[in-house]
Every structure is written in C-alpha cells, then in structure tokens.
Amino acid sequence: MESQLIYKICRKAEWEIAQREGVFRGAPVDLADGFIHFSTAAQLRETAARHFAGETELLLLSVESAALGDALRWEVSRGGDLFPHLYGVLPLEQIISVEALPL
C-alpha cells in the first residue's frame, strides 16, 4: 500500500506514559487486541465518534505509514474497510506531530 499519513487518537495520560518510556505501547484496547489501532484521514471522524465521544484531553498522533515497515498491517475491520494496525510499539521518533483533538 502506498505510504500515507495515518493517525492515532490517544488520551493525554497515555501520551504522558509514552513520553516517559520513549515508546507508545498503545491504549488498553490496543494492548488487549495485540496491536495499536490507527486510522486514515477518511476514517478519523467515525473512529472519534465511535470510541472517544464525550472524552476530553485527547491528542492526535500523526505517523507516516511507510516508516513503520512490516510491523504495520492493513486489515479488514468495520464495514469491510482496511484499517492500519501496528504490531509492536510505536517509537516516539516516528511520530510526525502531536496535536490537541477537541471533540
């Protein structure tokens, strides 16, 4: 698949842990599923509404998909769409930007 920006919505507390550890290991749902859930730009709005409605102190992490190599897999999820899943930790140096995400 062609390289593109992919996005991870995370809570401020999860980001603070990542900053201390030097890697982002994922949210509790990521840890339970065995991979870090990402979304494309087109999938972000639905992901936010479905999984983060009413939450505050959210951040949007941007990552270039090609930088993640073979650990990134595109897998069928809701509605038959392909979603990017990272099987492994996300090194902070792979994150292009971190922005506040008001919902």
Description of the molecule:
Helices cover 24% and strands 35% of the residues. By secondary structure, it is an alpha+beta fold. It has a single domain (5-100), classed as ADP-ribosylation fold (Alpha-Beta Barrel), CATH 3.20.170. The longest helix has 10 residues, at 12-21. The termini are far apart. The model has no long low-confidence stretch (mean pLDDT 95).
Please outline what is shown here.
The model has no long low-confidence stretch (mean pLDDT 95).
Using brief descriptors, characterize the structure shown:
103 residues, alpha+beta, ADP-ribosylation fold, three-stranded antiparallel β-sheet, 3 helices, 8 strands, 24% helix
Q: State the end-to-end distance.
A: 30 Å
Could you say which overall geometry the principal axes of the C-alpha atoms support? Answer: globular
Main sheet attributes: strand count, strand direction, barrel closure:
3 strands, antiparallel
The succession of helices and strands, N to C, reads EHEHEHEEEEE
User: What's the average pLDDT?
Assistant: 95
CATH superfamily: Protein of unknown function DUF952
**How much of the polypeptide forms β-strand, as a percent range?**
25-35%
Query: Are there runs of 5+ residues with pLDDT below 50, and where?
Result: none
Tell me the count of domains.
1
Please name the CATH topology. ADP-ribosylation fold
Annotation field: number of helices: 3
- Helical residue percent? 10-25%
> What's the architecture, going by CATH?
Alpha-Beta Barrel
Q: Please give the radius of gyration in angstroms.
A: 13 Å
Helix/strand/pairing category: alpha+beta
State the oligomer.
Answer: single chain
Which CATH top level class fits?
Alpha Beta
Q: Strands of the largest sheet, in order across it?
A: 1-4-8
Tell me the number of strands: 8
